[in-house]
Design goal:
This protein has three helices and eight strands. The chain is α+β, with helices and mostly antiparallel strands and about 160 residues long.
Length: about 160
Amino acid sequence: MKRTKLTPMQVLVGIVILTLVLAGWKSLTPAPKSYSFVTVDHPVDMWQDGKDKWAYYSMGPGETKDLAAKVRAELGPEGFVEDPSAKPWYEFDKGNVSVVVCNHHEFGVNRTWGGSKLMKPKPSTTGPSPGPWPCILVKNGPGTDTSINWFKVKKVLHGW
């Protein structure tokens, strides 16, 4: 029986199919869990700022101050310190780990080729306020240990 030799294109197609099957299977694993006050099952976005990894969780309608009280109650006993100079944000820091509670319109991410930077945009003076919609930003804490690139793949596959 004569053996058929695989062409480079067949090998490439086989590798692509195998990669897609493995990515689909791995995408079924849940996103890493963050703190208990993060009640959603995955971040909206993740980005890298130098060696720091950030995760952004949208918590749905509600009051930012109420969510900040829950965060304060959990993180205070763990040694986190609230930074009063971060207003209008509620920022809690411990070493290189930070948790920020703010409204979704009170932050932005400046994405550049070399990385991304968290920003406090100036409030808009035109149009109505978008209303209270608190979110949590976690830097280097639980839920940020996944690969940023792998998160982006899962985001596309799941339509997050």
